[in-house]
Amino acid sequence: MGRKVIDNPNVCSLVHAMNVIGNKWKPILIYLLANGSLRFGKLLMFTPTISKKVLTEQLRELEEDGIIIRKKYAEIPPRVEYSLSEKGEALLPILKSLSQWTQDSFKDIEFEACKIVTL
């Protein structure tokens, strides 16, 4: 299954941003990587309802878009770690603001505190 992309005939920057991070899993993965590098297994553990296939696809897309960095170590067994790139780190204040907007706008819902680090 390919990436779902919103038609963007006017090359709107907001539509492009939503094409990059606007699905169910990508903001969660960025949030998880906000506190440092994680391996595939840890990401899978922190998102138990995602399939391995979907996690792999989402990580590849985030890497292609320059949001995360995939670092492969020359070890046996092979070890791969994912971390945020500078582009990904620049998203953290935006995600934190979005989280704050949600808390301010939906006061009737009790939310868990988001631990989004801003660098």
TrEMBL record:
Coiled coil ranges (UniProt) are none
SUPFAM superfamilies reported in the protein's UniProt record: Winged helix' DNA-binding domain
Q: Which UniProt keywords apply?
A: DNA-binding, Transcription, Transcription regulation
Domain (HTH hxlR-type): give its ranges.
12-110
Its domain of life?
Bacteria
One Pfam family matching this protein: HxlR
Q: What is this protein called?
A: Helix-turn-helix domain-containing protein
Q: What species was this sequence derived from? A: Gaetbulibacter jejuensis
